[in-house]
Amino acid sequence: MLKLTDPRDVASRIYIRAMCYQPRPFALLDQLEAQSRIRALSRQRMGFAPSLHNDGLLYVWEPVVQ
Fold first, then answer.
1. Could you give the CA distance from residue 57 to residue 38 in angstroms, rounded to a whole number?
2. Where does 19-66 have alpha helices with state H?
3. CB-based contacts of 24, cutoff 8 Å, min separation 6
């Protein structure tokens, strides 16, 4: 979701890695969706953030009942 051509996104990526946050939560959710364990309902970047360091990202999912 981050565009590495945007300086703000580059700064966000550096901050996320420096703070030891989960660096790949969307990759994990995509993997679970590929395994049919969850169904992604929405995935988008939000138009607001609590600070310049934290962009709001939305990933709405539901478990797949087998």
1. 18
2. 25-34
3. none
